[in-house]
Amino acid sequence: MPHGWIILDKPLGLGSTQAVAAVKRNLREAGYGKKVKVGHGGTLDPLATGILPVALGEATKLAGRMLDATKAYEFTVKFGEETDTLDLEGAVIATSDVRPSRGDVEAVLPRFTGPIEQVPPAYSALKVDGERAYDLARAGVDVQLKTRSVTVFDLQLLNFDPEAGATLLATVSKGTYIRSLARDIAQALGSCGTVTMLRRTKAGPFDLSHAISLDKLNEFGKGAPLEQILLPLEAGLDDIPAIDLDPEQARAVRQGRVLTGMPHEDGLYCAYEGTVPVALVQLTDREVRVVRGFNLSDVAE
């Protein structure tokens, strides 16, 4: 069974669920049947493109961690109109004659860098009383979402056009809505705005250099080697330091036992036996406890 990551450069118009279904279909066509676990590490709207990490096999145990990872997006906000969805999918609900200049945009960006507060879009997957916000919004309900704290680590103006608007690059924490960020930037400039382009360029340790097209994925389903598109499980752990285990220690960790006397600083580590990931572990006061184990012993053998 394959274990690892397929980093898909999701095309425009394809939902994240459809992208995962495309991976599953190609796995079946390549002869893997329906036994391979598949999951993704962070939803992208159909009108967004870019990095969609798709986890296979034991890598699905890291998909939740990928959801929490820092991400980067390029996006264009066009000034003068705001839609109910804050992107091109929705209906216009506000207009403005104010068109900020390049200098205006550059001057306001520091206000949106660092820890900020933002209200998520009404058209989002967040739940309100057990219902998805976008389902309520589509049903005509006035959705009121709570303000949340997020962090914008970096925010740069990449391009400015008086008609097309401002194209920016934002590196953000989990839970950040780029559509809300664009709305708030436009409002701070005395205008209103809508996202006309959104592209995820980075998710955790993965960037566009790791990504493959949908056409490349389909080549695998037609017989191309899986190795051409599959990154190893440990590629999703590039930002975590490693601990090397001897065979006895690795056996203990696989059994969920606590290791003592480990000469490392406290923190989260990936424990390896040779080149095989054994588990994500937490080290505290020289004691190692398993956070998430990987069933890759067959690879080691």
Would you write up a description of this structure?
By secondary structure, the protein is an alpha+beta fold. The protein folds into 3 domains: 98 residues, Alpha-Beta Plaits (2-Layer Sandwich), CATH 3.30.70; 133 residues, 2-Layer Sandwich (Pseudouridine synthase), CATH 3.30.2350.10; 61 residues, Archaeosine Trna-guanine Transglycosylase, Chain: A, domain 4, CATH 2.30.130.10. 21% of the residues lie in helices and 36% in strands. It has 8 helices and 18 strands. The strands form 4 sheets. Strands 1, 2, 3, 4, 7, 10, 11, 12, 13 and 14 form a 10-stranded mixed sheet that branches. A 4-stranded mixed sheet has the order 15-16-17-18. Strands 5-6 form a two-stranded antiparallel ribbon. The protein is globular. The model has no long low-confidence stretch (mean pLDDT 92).
